[in-house]
Write a structure and sequence with these properties.
Mean pLDDT: 91
Number of helices: 6
CATH class: Mainly Alpha
Number of strands: 2
CATH architecture: Orthogonal Bundle
Helix content: 55-70%
Largest sheet: 2 strands, antiparallel
Low-confidence stretches: none
Structural class: mainly alpha
Distance between the termini: 27 Å
Order of helices and strands: HHHHEEHH
CATH topology: Arc Repressor Mutant, subunit A
Oligomer: single chain
CATH superfamily: Winged helix-like DNA-binding domain superfamily/Winged helix DNA-binding domain
Strand order of the largest sheet: 1-2
Number of domains: 1
């Protein structure tokens, strides 16, 4: 009999998709500006004071080109703006517009409700244990050959 046990990265990916799909569906019912999954991910890693595209790409684990595409879509939708970087003439900061800040606040409320729904389904104790495990410091990934 083949082992059908799924790896932890697969399970974490499914969990992420559960939250992403729930968030996108909830936001669509409110009439919020439609966004793609990469745009949703970009919004989640954006600092309040603004973030460079290079830093956004690093945080998202994507190429600068992919981050640029997500930024330009969100700028065109009126959710983000590009401003001057205070210390670099070559870089621009990406920030939420007032409409983008409102959308971000709404998304945070939806995510809280999704987390509550998860706790209803798997139990509060299990949800709290999951959060604690994910918040614990994992350290750097093992060096090659030590995995």
């Amino acid at each position: 009999m083949a082992d059908t046990r799924r790896s932890l990265p697969q399970l974490l990916g499914d969990a992420r998709r559960w939250f992403d799909e729930g968030l996108l569906a909830a936001m669509a019912t409110t009439g919020a500006t439609p966004v793609s999954l990469p745009q949703l991910q970009l919004f989640a890693v954006l600092d309040e004071a603004g973030t460079t595209v290079s830093e956004l790409a690093r945080r998202m684990g994507v190429t600068r080109q992919t981050a640029h595409q997500a930024v330009h879509g969100l700028v065109a939708a009126g959710l983000l703006e590009q401003t001057e970087h205070p210390t670099s003439a070559r870089q621009r900061l990406i920030r939420r517009t007032p409409e983008g800040a409102h959308a971000h606040q709404q998304a945070e409320l939806v995510l809280e409700r999704l987390e509550d729904r998860l706790a209803e389904r798997i139990g509060r104790e299990a949800a709290d244990a999951l959060r604690a495990a994910l918040e614990a410091p994992w350290g750097d990934p093992p060096a090659p050959g030590q995995a």
